[in-house]
Give the backbone structure.
Amino acid sequence: MKRFIPLALVAVGLTVWLGLRGESQDRVKAPEGGKPMLKAVVHINFTDGERQKHGLKNVANILKEEKGAEIIVVCHGGGIGLLVKDKSEHCDEVARLIKEGVRFTACENTLRDKSIPKENLLPGVTTVPSGAGEVIRKQQEGYGYFKP
């Protein structure tokens, strides 16, 4: 009986380890036909409209290079203006990228701090409780991090 307990613990530990190892490998497995799908979280927390424009151009270029890429743009702090109807200099480009499958999310903390109602967001934009938290969460889910 004394020999059985250590062997059982080793077996349980090995089973758990193999299960966790397999779970993490599932995230990077290639879909049918080849390489893994590119997943990226793009972090926008700056007000500079020119820099925002270049960030959107980067997103468009990623989509050209990686068909089917999953891209989430998270805006908070100064970057929230990119997603607000009467403040954004790039409404048309955001709308075009949404049509291509890019997801844009606005931080509810920032909206509250800046007294911006959700109704003032561009069509198709969703919200998350914390922009910073969402960026970290997406990285933990296997998304690559990009900040223009």
In short: The longest strand covers residues 39-44. The chain has two domains: 1-30, 37-146. Confidence is low (pLDDT under 50) at residues 6-28.
